[in-house]
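Hi everyone, sorry if this is the wrong subforum. Our group has a chain we'd like a structural model of before ordering constructs, and none of us has done structure prediction before. Sequence below.
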Amino acid sequence: MATQSAICPHCGAPTFGMSFCTSCGARLAPTATQVPPICPQCGAPNLGMQFCTNCGTRLARIPTPQAPTTRHAVAAAPTAKAKVARKYGALRALATVCRIIGWLILVGGSLISIAAAVLIAAGTTLVEQQLPQISTWGMGALATAIGGIILSVLYGLLALAFADLCWVLMDIEANTRQQAESIAGQAPLS
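Answer:
Right subforum, don't worry. Here is the predicted structure as tokens:
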């Protein structure tokens, strides 16, 4: 088995006898010998240092080799959107659940209110046949339908608004971070 260089050419960390750098994870090129760099002034070995630990002389850096240009050489780093998705996973799940619940309340509550009004009206018809003096129950069916529809629409819209608020807050954070990176020169503004 071939031995490896003593200094990572990418980050300068000590890598004596390793196949991968423990600091940056770069694959190290094999070399014929496994000798740590020697200070030209005092001759002391200096594993992964920029200055000699014995006399303080600045040590020459090993030139950084160029990485291979094959498409499969290095795994792609996760994108910024993937990091954000992992970062706000619970908030995204909450927003999705609130959106589903909002639509269920909005549609289901309205349908249930209409069904309840129909059942109350049918029951009122039977009661009025038996007791003709009780004719005010028909208004209760109408009030139940209207009140149920109004409340289900109100609560459904509140749940949908909360879900949209969660999405807006995540978008604001992503835009703010992207703008800060653009100003710092780390990423182009898209």
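For your construct planning: The first helix runs from residue 80 to 87. The longest strand covers residues 3-4.
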